[in-house]
Design a protein that fits this description.
Elements (H helix, E strand, L loop, with lengths): L2 H30 L3 H30 L1
Helix pairs in contact: 1-2
C-alpha cells in the first residue's frame, strides 16, 4: 500500500468518524437545550446539509475527472 492510497482511505475513515461524532454532539446539544422536535430536526438538517455538500462535491470531482 502506497502513501496516497493510505491517505485516501484514512481521509474517508476519519471523516466518517468525525461526522458520527458531530452527530452525537448535536444530539446531546438538542437534549441539553430542550430544543424539542422542531429544534432537533433543524439542527440535524443543517448538519446534514454540510455532509450532503461534502458528498456532492466528492461525486462531482470524480465525475469531472472522467
Amino acid at each position: 500500500m502506497n502513501e496516497a492510497l493510505f491517505s485516501e482511505i484514512a481521509l474517508y475513515v476519519c471523516l466518517t468518524g468525525l461526522i458520527v461524532w458531530m452527530g452525537f454532539i448535536v444530539w446531546d446539544l438538542a437534549k441539553k437545550s430542550k430544543a424539542g422536535r422542531f429544534g432537533t430536526i433543524a439542527l440535524f438538517t443543517v448538519l446534514g446539509a454540510g455532509v450532503a455538500g461534502f458528498i456532492f462535491k466528492t461525486i462531482l470531482v470524480e465525475v469531472m475527472a472522467i
